[in-house]
Structures are given as C-alpha cells and as structure tokens.
Amino acid sequence: MAKRSKAYRQAAELIDRERLYTPLEAAQLAKDTSKVKLDATVEVAIRLGVDPRKADQMVRGTVNLPHGTGKTARVIVFATGDKAAEAEAAGADAVGSEDLIERIQGGWLDFDAAIATPDQMAKVGRIARILGPRGLMPNPKTGTVTPDVTKAVNEIKGGKINFRVDKQSNLHLVIGKVSFDQAKLVENYAAALDEVLRAKPSAAKGRYLRKITFSTTMGPGIPVDTAKLRNLLEDDAQA
C-alpha cells in the first residue's frame, strides 16, 4: 500500500473512526479535511445490499442536484439536422453523428455525458464497448436517449447526474465542492439519497443501505449514519 501523505494523515486524525457522523457533521468535516489547494469535489460512496451480478438487483438512476455539482458538465449529442441545431443552441459541447463516433473511436473522451436521439442509437451502438464501461452510453432509462435534446442538455448542465452500482455493490455520487456551504452539500446529498432509495430493486432483500461515506478529492473517508434519511438538516440541528 502506498504511503499516505502527511496532509492526509493530519486530515484523518480529525475523524473519529468509532462513531457515525450526521450528514451535516460529515459535510463540515469534508470541508475541514480537504487539504488540496484546488476546490475539491465532495463525493458520497454508498455500499448497497444488492448483488449486481443479478439483473433484477441492478441499481441505476438519475438525480437532479438542487445546487448542482459545482462543475459545468461537458455534454456531447449524437444528432443530425434540426435536432443537431437544437443541441448546439442548448449549449452542447460537441454535436455530430458519424464524425463524432469516429472521433471517439480515435480515443477522444473529453466529455462527461452523452445524449442521443433515438434514430442515432443504431450507430452509437458501435461504440458501446467504449462508452459503456465509462458510464457514458446513452440510455432511455437515464433520459439520455430522447428526441428532446434541449431539455436533456439543460438538465445535465444544470446538475443532473447518473448513478449506477458497480461490481462491488457500491455507488459513487458527486454532491458538490468544498466551497459549498454545509446546507447545500446536505441538500444535494438528500436529493441523491431519495433517488437511490427510489431505485431499490424489489428483489433486494435485507438491509439496503449498508454503509455511507463522505470524502473529498484525495481526502479520507468520513462514516455517515445511514439512519439519517429524512429531514436531514432539522435532525442535525436537534442532535
């Protein structure tokens, strides 16, 4: 295991490993333990009680973060004609069809989300092996295969994010930046948690939320109380 930096060790000392923090406490600790000079990203990792190897226990969905991620997403759109013009007008960072596919086949992946009109999906399927493992493949379930490209681009640039459980039964979601105040981080977390709970598969048995951890870019994990699910700000204020 690589040796941790002095800054990391100092940050880790601020965290009591014997307790579970409320979301508001964890948000403040995330801000306090961020030792990098940039405006670090705050992420939540959620261990779920599902078996993602089983199709009926896959967890995926989208969430519109009320305060965004703190970063303007780079969005590409596979479309032609009027739909391509609409995507460009909405602020898409790249728009195209065969030309965009060839660019991606050549190794270009400088974007955060991909949208496609339904008629483009047969073509986009040729790069599914490139986009799929990176969570970038357009999908009707996440609203990224749609004729309404204007709405899709605006939502993603406004803070809509996708989530999907990985092979280890974990979800990783960005909930903001350390420059956000505690309330905004917690409100984003609450919105994300609501969607994760809504996405619970009916086939999942036993405890669904196994473990929740806040962290920042290159920062230590902060264990969060999974029982704090509703009225997060009010609960914390009364704690």
TrEMBL record:
Gene Ontology CC entries for this record: large ribosomal subunit
Keyword Ribonucleoprotein attributed: yes
GO MF, one annotated term: rRNA binding
Keyword vocabulary terms for this entry: Repressor, Ribonucleoprotein, Ribosomal protein, RNA-binding, rRNA-binding, Translation regulation, tRNA-binding
SUPFAM superfamilies per UniProt: Ribosomal protein L1 (SSF56808)
Gene3D superfamilies reported for this sequence: 3.30.190.20, 3.40.50.790
Domain of life assignment: Bacteria
Record-level GO BP terms: regulation of translation; translation
Function of the protein: Binds directly to 23S rRNA. The L1 stalk is quite mobile in the ribosome, and is involved in E site tRNA release. Protein L1 is also a translational repressor protein, it controls the translation of the L11 operon by binding to its mRNA.
Family: Belongs to the universal ribosomal protein uL1 family.
Protein name: Large ribosomal subunit protein uL1
Organism expressing this protein natively: Actinokineospora globicatena
Lineage: Bacteria, Bacillati, Actinomycetota, Actinomycetes, Pseudonocardiales
